[in-house]
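seq:
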Amino acid sequence: MGKSLTQQCPIVLVLPVEATCQWWVRPEAKVNRAIYPFLCNFTLFSSSIYIHKTMTVSFQYFSLQSFPGRLSISYCRSSGPGGQNVNKVNTKAEVRFHLATADWISEDVRQKMATMYKNRISKSGELIVTSEVSRYQMRNLAACLQKIREMIIEATEMPRTESKETVEMIRSRVEKMNRERLRQKKIRSSVKQSRHVDFD
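struct:
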C-alpha cells in the first residue's frame, strides 16, 4: 500500500492558540516543536508549514490533509528534467490559495504579498505557485511550499533602518561611482572626437 500524502511529504500547520509573547516555532524532524525567539508575524519553514503570531508555546498541529480547502494542489505534465518520464507522468506541482481569505496569514502580510506578488495572483484572487524542478511530484510539491514560505518571510520582514554611518558610507560610494562614470564617459567622448577627420 502506498504512503499517504502526509507520510511522503510531512507538512505541518501550526496555529497559535494563545497570544502573550513573540516566539518562532520550528517543527522539523530532529528539532520538532523546538521554540526559538524571533520577531515576525507569519512564517513557513522548508518541509513544514508553520505560522507565527504573538504567542505562547501552546499550539495546535494539523497535517496538510486536515485543511484541504486552504491549499489547492494539482499536478500536470512537466517540461523539466526526467526524459520520457515527463511525457507520461503528471509531475509538475501547482499550489494555489485565495490570498484575500487566507486567514492563516495576518492581514497586513496578505496586503503586502498582494502588492509584491501581483503577477502571481489570478483574476479570481488566487496566489499561484508552481514547480517542475524535479521528476517527482512530492519534491515539486515541497518546492512549491518552500516558495510560499520564502514569499511569506519576505513579506513579513520589516525594512531595515540604516545607521547614520552606513547611510553616509553608501552616499559616498554612490558619489564616487558617479564621478568615475562621468570620467569614463569623458574619456570615451574624447576618443570619439579624436576619430573625426577634418577635411577642410
